[in-house]
Write a structure and sequence with these properties.
Elements (H helix, E strand, L loop, with lengths): L1 E6 L7 H16 L4 E6 L10 H5 L3 H16 L2 E7 L7 H9 L2 H4 L3 E7 L6 H10 L7 E2 L4 E3 L14 H28 L14
Parallel strand pairs: 1-2, 1-3, 3-4, 4-5, 4-6
GO molecular function: FMN binding; oxidoreductase activity
InterPro entries: Flavoprotein-like_sf (IPR029039), FMN_Rdtase-like_dom (IPR005025), NAD(P)H-dep_reductase (IPR050712)
Protein name: NADPH-dependent oxidoreductase
Amino acid sequence: MKIIILSGSHREKSQSEKVSKYLQSVFINQHKVLQVDIISLANNPIPLLDDQYLSGSDEKWKGIWQPISNKLTEADGIVIVTPEWHGMSPSGVKNFLLLCSAHEIGHKAGLIVSVSAGMGGSYPIAELRMNTSKNSRICYIPEHLIVRDCQNVLNNSEAENPAETVLRKRIEHTTKLFLAYSVALKHVRESGVIDLKNYPNGM
């Protein structure tokens, strides 16, 4: 089992990266997943999608995207950790998903994790569910996670209050369910019924 976690904040030392590392530890230590890699968008390491990328032959893009593409292709599931900025998922997350193809993440389990400094966090989840799966064919599971009051949770090895205890238990449950979906969808990909040659785009 191989899992990719996208840390979607453009900022260094972000709360999204903290949450991503916590999720990584849950997958490894509690669920015994052997390989869990984090792809961080801190400092905008990936350029915006452009004509050179779409040409498929640009050497600059091959150097930037090919290592990421290889990881995504090998992964069984993708966790997208997105901050909520002004009620939105940031541009880096949307750009990343624009670059992803169905050959890389299609028919693989996706888990959305929203990170909010306050008590919000629902808008990025609705946004990503609505418009990031048509062509990529990523299969977001019905469950999602919202880490609210993010600066004051997941900072230590143990929960600091009852609300954080509830959050940690919810994270453990949701990540376990996500892994079950990841296993199930592997059978779909191996079934031979997916036809990206004739149907490369969604409707």
